[in-house]
From TrEMBL:
Subunit field text: Homotetramer.
Named cofactor requirement(s): Mg(2+); K(+)
Catalytically driven reaction(s): (6S)-NADHX + ADP = AMP + phosphate + NADH + H(+); (6S)-NADPHX + ADP = AMP + phosphate + NADPH + H(+); (6R)-NADPHX = (6S)-NADPHX; (6R)-NADHX = (6S)-NADHX
Origin organism lineage: Bacteria, Pseudomonadati, Pseudomonadota, Alphaproteobacteria, Hyphomicrobiales
UniProt binding sites for (6S)-NADPHX: 67-71, 132-138, 161, 263, 326, 384, 451
Protein name, entry field: Bifunctional NAD(P)H-hydrate repair enzyme
CDD domains tied to this protein: YXKO-related (cd01171)
Keyword NAD recorded: yes
């Protein structure tokens, strides 16, 4: 399927597979390494151009024991030939290298010195080829000290594949890691380029091609992607010319009690802006007046308990629900969630809606499993890290798991789409597919933005989008809206940016 080629993320193991398939097809490993070294040298020359001296630059290349070091030797030779002053500082003696890395060391004709002579203060550019995809344990001792000293000196630093110390699989820092200004990686990005804290350590990431053909992905069959519109744009229901508001679904948001209604209204207004044909806010009686005084296009209806909700659910036009924002965590959440799911409707469970199941997790998981057989997933859970840990404590505590794997395991257990929020939000489906979201701004970390996200996702569900795509699209639109607004964002302004987001999606 074509979508598999878009924005694929490969773990270091999968990247190794891509490498091996390519070599089996007759391209030698050293040819790939020379291409990689070339891409690194090109990036370095661009950075040197930014420095703007126009003359010779002092470049220190740090070379490790594996092929990451091999790439550094190739880049060093090309930069040396460009007239720059290059020294390769190696962790182990070049004669100890083997395979392609040894060939690369032989290709280099310049100065080699041990790592301990490297002085970050006396370079214009550092190229980090110490460790890449082969990082297998925490960095310790002299190398850790060198990384700390380098980060303090803060030279301009270009990382090859990954900043040494960043796990390509998880984005975790093993021991310590360089802070790069730029990272050049090859063929496809890795989860560690987009999962924190690795993402921050990478600086800006350039993915460059080195001669590995895209069709190796047909064999590898990766299931992780960067969240980009190409993954879900075709399922996005932009209103058609002859369309009717009922074609675009009817989203329903449960309001909290009188003093806690704002969160639900944020979700409801966002659902309307995000494309639901109609939106109804279900309000407890004591909050009807306050809700009525704040709503115009969103409709309002009293819902006092399970009986009222049961009557509402008889009408099949109410097709996507949001439960949790400002709602409180009592028995009522659990009843409502059960009724909505048993009635076969889509449900976004957020905030209090998630916390309400902390002590009775299995009820939620069992409820969701039975009715959904063969019907596709209808439950979307949108926890931040704290809510996630309450619902999936064992998964949250498993240090060896990446955020991607945590979200995947939770999705499988709950038979729900999991939106594990943060700067690096991960969206995972029970079938193993997962995306990492990378847009948005730090201004999103403000009260109420999560409520808006729930509403945006519900709007896509109301329009019939499958749950995984609805969640991925909702998270992306939410992040893009924040980018378009810029600094000073509050949750109230987010939905107002959605028209510009739709224009971009329609024009692209
Ligand atoms: N498709 C590919 O896979 C390609 C890979 N290339 C390069 O090859 C790299 C991967 O090469 P390798 O698999 O040789 O791995 P690395 O070069 O990243 O490192 C592996 C070596 O580091 C040692 N090591 C691991 N963790 C350590 C630690 N904490 N402290 C000290 N030593 C440690 C290992 O024992 C092993 O000797 C990539 O990052 C990339 O730069 C490129 O040459 C081009 C193609
Ligand atoms: K590196």
């Amino acid at each position: 399927m074509e979508w598999r080629r878009f924005h694929t993320l490969l773990t270091p193991d999968e990247m190794g597979q891509a490498d091996r398939i390519t070599i089996r097809r007759g391209v030698s490993g050293f040819v790939l390494m020379k291409a990689a070294g070339n891409r690194v040298a090109e990036a370095a020359l661009k950075m040197i151009g930014d420095i703007g001296t126009g003359g010779t630059c002092r470049i220190a290349c740090l070379g490790g024991p594996g092929n990451n070091g091999g790439d550094a030797f190739v880049a060093a030779e090309l930069l040396r030939r460009s007239g720059h002053s290059v020294v390769v500082h190696t962790l182990s003696k070049p004669e100890c290298l083997s395979g392609d890395a040894a060939l690369a060391a032989g290709y280099y004709e310049g100065t080699v010195e041990p790592l301990d002579t490297f002085e970050p203060e006396k370079t214009d550019l550092v190229i980090d080829g110490l460790l890449g995809a082969g990082l297998s344990r925490p960095i310790e001792g002299d190398v850790a000290a060198l990384i700390a000293r380098t980060n303090t000196a803060a030279p301009r630093l270009l990382a090859i594949d990954l900043p040494s110390g960043v796990s390509g699989k998880s984005g975790a820092i093993l021991g310590d890691a360089f802070q790069a200004e730029r990272t050049v990686s090859f063929f496809r990005a890795k989860p560690g380029h987009f999962l924190e804290p690795g993402r921050t350590r990478c600086g800006s990431v350039d993915i460059r091609q080195i001669g590995i053909e895209a069709n190796v992905l047909d064999t590898i069959r990766p299931k992780a992607f960067l969240n980009q519109p190409e993954l879900w744009r075709l399922q996005l229901n932009l209103p058609a010319g002859a369309g009717h508001k009922y074609d675009r679904g009817h989203a329903v948001v449960f309001s909290g009690p009188a003093l806690k209604t704002g969160a639900a209204r944020l979700a409801a207004n966002a659902a309307l802006r995000a494309g639901a044909g109609l939106v109804t806010l279900l309000s407890p009686p004591n909050a009807i007046l306050v809700n009525a005084s704040h709503l115009t296009a969103v409709m309002l209806r009293k819902c006092e308990g399970s009986g009222d909700l049961g009557e509402i659910l008889v009408d099949h036009r109410f097709n996507a629900f949001v439960l949790g924002p400002g709602f409180g965590t009592g028995e009522r959440v659990r009843d409502y969630a059960r009724l909505v799911l048993e009635a076969g409707r889509a449900l976004v469970l957020d905030a209090d809606g998630i916390s309400a199941f902390s002590d009775v997790r299995n009820i939620l998981f069992d409820n969701e499993k039975q009715p959904s057989e063969g019907e596709g997933v209808r439950l979307v859970l949108t926890p931040h890290a704290g809510e996630f840990a309450r619902l999936f404590p064992d998964i949250a505590e498993a240090d060896r798991l990446s955020k991607l794997d945590r979200a995947r395991q939770a999705a499988e257990r709950a038979n729900a789409v999991i939106v594990l929020k943060g700067r690096d939000t991960v969206i995972a489906s029970p079938d193993g597919r997962a995306v990492i979201n990378a847009n948005g701004t730090p201004w999103l970390a403000t009260a109420g933005t999560g409520d808006v996200l729930s509403g945006i996702i519900a709007a896509q569900l109301a329009q019939g989008m499958p749950a995984f795509e609805a969640a991925a699209a909702g998270v992306w639109m939410h992040g893009r809206a924040a980018e378009l607004f810029g600094p000073g964002l509050t949750a109230e302004e987010l939905a107002g940016q959605l028209p510009r987001v739709f224009v971009e999606l329609m024009e692209a």
